[in-house]
């Protein structure tokens, strides 16, 4: 089953994207922002949420609670896209009013709350069109530099389940002259529980099997670190003569920036460290978004528009009653929304930036764009 997801290509009509396209044709429907309530009352959930956020920002919690009750009346975690996103933002507003944002975010995170199988995670990730494009482009750039040497070392910030790498392993096995020796350093956050490194270790086992299948010499170096900016050069086990590629898929957005930590912040610290590694290529895929304002109301409004579009996209891709999609929305997207809305300072870990901001930050670290 992993092959059907992880080894899929654009010409596989029976892959996840093909199945999702069929689901869209059968079940897709456009959600509406306005909801009709009792006595034919028209309720605009987006406007109501923004009004509630304004009341919270001004300290008028009495009005905010009443507005929140109305949002609750017309929103639902299992309704259409507009109802589901309204429900998620209502949870965040409720936590902010109650002052429980710091407790809500970790307790609602995916690893602690909703058990989704490895297959489901991979299916959801690979079915999203932007994820498929991201993986295709990143692997193409890494494969291009891999032609320069007999050994390729990929350093992956936020490797998770390694869904990006089976297709690269397959392509490397077909390289003229034979595959290079592949080493992957997988960097990930520690997971809750007694085995904080178990997920990343399992990723290594899975990738090892793919390398054995395709005849690619392989070595895996797992690194579990809570503070990615504290990783040292020695931890990477760099070898003279190897081609080094650093990859990061939208994971640096969770690092604190200069608004909290000043000039020596984790976000710039990791970029400066990657520059110190001096890789042949750094492929940094970013989540281009504007909801990182230190001002609550601006951040709330931008986040609402951003996640409304995401929920609409999910509704178009997956069937209306897809339990995997519902779990993903509640666990991953719901917890991110709660963090954006209910948390401030160091407790707010969702800190995306626009691609122009990321470009400026990356250039300051000493990187240059790859020539076209």
From TrEMBL:
The keyword Transcription applies. A motif (VHIID) lies at residues 152-156. Keywords: Transcription, Transcription regulation. The keyword Flavoprotein does not apply. Residues 202-234 are annotated as: Leucine repeat II (LRII). It holds the Pfam family GRAS. Residues 13-38 are annotated as: Disordered. A motif (LXXLL motif) lies at residues 252-256. Residues 342-372 are annotated as: SAW. Belongs to the GRAS family. This is Uncharacterized protein. It comes from Cuscuta europaea (European dodder).
